[in-house]
């Protein structure tokens, strides 16, 4: 065998040795490492037979029907306003911990929400251990837009509708009784009309159908659905008995002297809203008010009010030193225009001030002391609707405005 052939034989054997060595090492590593590992989406924990598949375009976190037992389950969270809510081992219905819920001011509370909203439950279950003013605690549902869709006192769901203090009681609240229908659910809250304290545990959403008498709120309660009728014809004036006026939130007294302004409301807002419930057929009109200004930042006249999600308004700021035009459509509020700083009277700038809003067709005008200071023609607004009054302030409480008289005339 010559030297050339021997060289090529040795070369081929070396190449085969290297090739088999590499594959052998890789195979050994794969064997010792075990089967291939596929990393799952860390935002989507594995859940077998999840009863609540996600139903919207929110981050893909499967909704868990269990909200709290010892701790919040994955995907659920809470937020508080003017209240103290924390997990505690002081008392528990099951497990070792519950939520200690305590409020110091009226209409403080805690909201429970999930990034993926379940839509197939029929009741809300929770264990409650009332300590102080438990009769003032309400359960409130909110829609996907964050607005209240229904509320009822927790005490209604106790046996015989009677609150039990100092002991754990397991409650089941029919979802439909607090306004939850189909997929309109966004979140639910515990709010209290009084400074209160309670433990809450084993909070969950259930598919069980609960047969329970429907809560019927008292007249003029926050819980009464707003109904707009159209029996009153124009002109309409009022300076004493504010019959058929309905406060939706905040401060609005209906006996003279009529006061309106901010208070700690169930929405946690810094304002108020009241509407005339019998002006649903008002079409083209001018709505005028005479007031003594309080310390609130904004006094607003509302027109073409269909519901809380659809109307137009003129907002007057700082003793009528400026005006802005707003439209609220499908719950979205948009500022369309505003005036520059207006000159105020040098004397008595806070008393006997006249403001007005005028609607003719799709044209809306804002008036200060009889002078039109802002006017715009809008693409489309409600063709008819009642009138209302709203306020806003940077502070949750202030010295209220005093309404001297209101007048609505045809235009």
Helical amount: under 10%
Given helix and strand content, the structural type is mainly beta
CATH architecture of the largest domain: Sandwich
Strands, count: 27
Shape: globular
Spans with pLDDT under 50 lasting ≥5 residues? 22-62, 264-269
CATH class of the largest domain: Mainly Beta
Q: Could you describe the largest sheet, including whether it forms a barrel?
A: 8 strands, antiparallel
- What Rg do the Cα atoms give? 31 Å
* Count of spatially separate domains: 2
Q: Kindly report the name of the CATH homologous superfamily of the largest domain.
A: Exo-inulinase, domain 1
What is the CATH third-level topology name of the largest domain? Jelly Rolls
Keywords, separated by commas or semicolons:
411 residues; mainly beta; Jelly Rolls; eight-stranded antiparallel β-sheet; seven-stranded antiparallel β-sheet; 27 strands; globular
Describe the fold and architecture.
By secondary structure, this protein is mainly beta. It folds into 2 domains: 66-206, Galactose-binding lectin (Jelly Rolls); 236-410, Jelly Rolls (Sandwich). The protein has 1 helix and 27 strands. Strands 13, 15, 16, 18, 23, 24, 25 and 27 form an 8-stranded antiparallel beta sheet that branches. It starts with a helix and ends with a strand. The model is unreliable at 22-62 and 264-269 (pLDDT under 50).
């Amino acid at each position: 065998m010559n030297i050339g052939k021997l060289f090529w034989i040795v070369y081929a054997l070396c190449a085969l040795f290297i090739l088999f060595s590499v594959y052998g090492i890789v195979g050994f590593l794969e064997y010792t490492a075990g089967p291939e590992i596929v990393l799952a989406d860390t935002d989507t924990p594995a859940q077998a037979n999840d009863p609540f598949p996600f139903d919207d375009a929110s981050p893909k976190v499967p909704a868990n029907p269990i909200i709290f037992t010892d701790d919040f389950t994955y995907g659920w969270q809470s937020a508080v306003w003017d209240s103290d809510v924390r997990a505690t081992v002081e008392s528990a219905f099951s497990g070792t911990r519950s939520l200690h819920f305590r409020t110091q001011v009226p209409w403080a509370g805690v909201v429970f929400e999930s990034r993926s909203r379940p839509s197939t439950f029929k009741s809300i279950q929770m264990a409650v251990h009332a300590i102080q003013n438990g009769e003032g605690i309400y359960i409130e549902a909110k829609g996907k837009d964050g607005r209240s869709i229904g509320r009822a006192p927790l005490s209604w769901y106790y046996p015989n509708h009677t609150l039990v203090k100092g002991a754990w009681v397991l409650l089941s609240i029919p979802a439909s009784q607090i306004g939850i229908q189909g997929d309109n659910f966004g979140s639910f809250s515990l709010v209290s009309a009084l400074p209160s304290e309670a433990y809450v545990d084993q909070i969950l959403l259930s598919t069980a159908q609960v047969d329970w008498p429907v809560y019927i709120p008292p007249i003029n309660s926050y819980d009464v659905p707003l109904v707009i009728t159209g029996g009153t014809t124009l002109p309409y004036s009022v300076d004493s008995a504010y019959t058929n006026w309905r406060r939706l939130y905040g401060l609005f007294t209906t006996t003279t002297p009529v006061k309106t302004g901010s208070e700690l409301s169930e929405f946690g807002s810094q304002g108020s809203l009241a509407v005339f419930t019998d002006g649903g057929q008002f079409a083209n009109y001018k709505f005028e008010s005479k007031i003594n200004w309080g310390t609130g930042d904004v006094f607003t006249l509302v027109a073409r009010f269909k519901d809380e999600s659809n109307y137009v308004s003129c907002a007057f700021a700082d003793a009528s030193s400026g005006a802005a035009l707003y439209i609220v459509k499908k719950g979205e509020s948009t500022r369309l225009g505003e005036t520059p700083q207006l000159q105020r009277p040098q004397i008595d700038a806070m008393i006997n001030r006249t403001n007005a809003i005028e609607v003719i067709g799709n044209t809306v005008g804002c008036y200060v002391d009889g002078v039109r200071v802002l006017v715009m023609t809008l693409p489309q607004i409600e063709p008819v609707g009642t009138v209302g009054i709203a306020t806003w302030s940077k502070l949750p409480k202030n010295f209220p405005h005093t309404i001297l008289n209101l007048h609505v005339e045809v235009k």
